[in-house]
């Protein structure tokens, strides 16, 4: 079987080039996601703008299944080669569609959303979930340049369609209709982008349990990292909760800035490479330390950039938010390592920490910005330590990489760090 590179001309891009490509794709994705509500604020009346924000939040929750599917497919692909993934993908999409069919009408009534809006959101979300399969295959095969292209294509379909609908004056329904149509059309482009060698007929099939485990871990990560923002909205007065919302922009920046490290490391983690986890943690830790230091030196500037000049006086709180995000970035690496190692309950420390944080905030934590932010930092520290201990224990008990079960003979060059197509 011949090999081709990501660029299609026989060249294999280096890991640095792949990292830059995935990073730029991530910036593009987040940039488009940011443009949607900003443009909505300029083209929609207040009631429809609030509905758009609510629908985007519901879509983010539904998108957890897409990320879980991508991680599960990437891990399985890296470990077992070109195994079939169509059946678990169809099952994941079907289950997601069924849940949306039940939950979205309830949300429409409870959150005062229109029927067409929730229907179009459901179509868009199902398309995004299905896309997780092809992104996962590209990631597992270490075709990172194509993965970056796939991420950009999906963002263009998911958010670009809505942006076009808003800009053309389509209103809320028109924006969602455009987003749903373009998201479905992008699936065909992802299939073409993922063309390559055929499937291995003797490779084991990806199990549904693996997809559920990865999705559960993704959901736990989302919940634990957003819990403080929701609790601040619940317990703080409007002005203080607004300040807290600005602070969480720094948290999310520190959390997602080094995400590229985890994306590139995951296939090697799936094959039991012990050195990869150490390297990933060092890189993510260094990035987090740099961001925390920057928040100490220029906290007022950071708050001003995130929320405007009226928030610069809260710059002293910036290190709390940045440190929380930096710790959760380490947790993200560790949780992915546990999923890659087929741990049974990789998200258990996250759920335990979330319950403890909610209980503490409701009872003993001072209901101030500093109080909740400090409790969130403590929670992130406990979560990182608990996840690290669980990961170390799992890796100590696991067989060495050479004894991991595989369905096929090793592929030459498979154990070297590269990012080209197989």
UniProtKB/TrEMBL annotation:
Question: What GO CC annotations are associated with the protein?
Answer: plasma membrane
Please identify the protein, giving its name as recorded. Answer: Membrane protein involved in the export of O-antigen and teichoic acid
Q: What keywords does the record list, in alphabetical order?
A: Cell membrane, Membrane, Transmembrane, Transmembrane helix
Coiled coil regions, renumbered to chain: none
Known InterPro entries for this protein? Answer: Poly_Biosynth_Transport
Source lineage? Bacteria, Bacillati, Actinomycetota, Actinomycetes, Micromonosporales
Give the source species.
Answer: Micromonospora matsumotoense
Provide the residue span(s) of the region labelled Disordered. 392-422
Where does it mainly reside? membrane
Segments crossing the lipid bilayer = 15-37, 49-69, 90-111, 117-135, 147-168, 174-191, 211-232, 244-267, 279-305, 317-336, 348-365, 371-392
What is the topology of this protein in the membrane according to its UniProt annotation? Multi-pass membrane protein
Q: Where in the cell is it found?
A: Cell membrane
- PANTHER family named in the record: O-ANTIGEN TRANSPORTER-RELATED (PTHR30250:SF11), PST FAMILY PREDICTED COLANIC ACID TRANSPORTER (PTHR30250)
């Amino acid at each position: 079987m011949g090999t081709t590179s990501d660029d299609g001309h026989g060249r294999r891009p280096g890991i640095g080039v792949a990292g830059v490509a995935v990073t730029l794709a991530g910036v593009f994705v987040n940039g488009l996601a940011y443009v949607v509500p900003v443009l909505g604020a300029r083209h929609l009346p207040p009631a429809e703008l609030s509905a758009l924000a609510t629908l985007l939040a519901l879509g983010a929750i539904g998108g957890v299944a897409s990320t879980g599917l991508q991680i599960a497919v990437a891990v399985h692909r890296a470990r077992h080669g070109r195994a079939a993934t169509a059946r678990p993908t169809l099952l994941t999409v079907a289950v997601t569609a069924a849940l949306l069919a039940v939950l979205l009408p309830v949300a429409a009534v409870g959150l005062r959303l229109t029927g067409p809006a929730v229907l179009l959101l459901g179509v868009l979300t199902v398309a995004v979930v299905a896309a997780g399969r092809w992104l996962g295959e590209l990631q597992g095969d270490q075709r990172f340049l194509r993965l970056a292209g796939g991420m950009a294509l999906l963002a263009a379909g998911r958010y670009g369609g809505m942006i076009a609908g808003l800009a053309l004056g389509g209103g809320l329904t028109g924006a969602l209709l455009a987003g749903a149509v373009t998201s479905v059309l992008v699936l065909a482009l992802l299939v073409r982008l993922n063309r390559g060698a055929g499937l291995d007929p003797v490779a084991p099939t990806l199990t549904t349990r693996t997809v559920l485990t990865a999705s559960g871990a993704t959901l736990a990560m989302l919940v634990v990292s957003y819990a403080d923002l929701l609790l601040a909205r619940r317990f703080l007065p409007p002005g203080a909760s607004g300040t807290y919302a600005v602070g969480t922009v720094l948290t999310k920046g520190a959390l997602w800035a080094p995400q590229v490290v985890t994306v590139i490391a995951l296939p090697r983690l799936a094959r039991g490479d012990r050195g990869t986890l150490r390297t990933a943690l060092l890189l993510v830790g260094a990035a987090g330390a740099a961001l925390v230091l920057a928040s100490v030196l220029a906290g007022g500037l950071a708050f001003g950039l995130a929320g405007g000049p009226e928030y610069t006086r809260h710059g002293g709180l910036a290190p709390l938010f940045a440190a929380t995000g930096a710790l959760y970035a380490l947790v993200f690496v560790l949780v992915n390592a546990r999923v890659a190692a087929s741990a049974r309950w990789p998200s258990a420390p996250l759920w335990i920490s979330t319950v403890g944080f909610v209980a503490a905030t409701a009872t003993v934590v001072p209901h101030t910005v500093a109080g909740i932010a400090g409790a969130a930092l403590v929670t992130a520290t406990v979560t990182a330590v608990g996840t690290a201990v669980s990961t170390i224990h799992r890796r100590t008990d696991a067989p060495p990489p050479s004894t991991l079960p595989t369905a096929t003979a090793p592929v030459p060059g498979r154990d070297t760090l590269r990012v080209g197509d197989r």
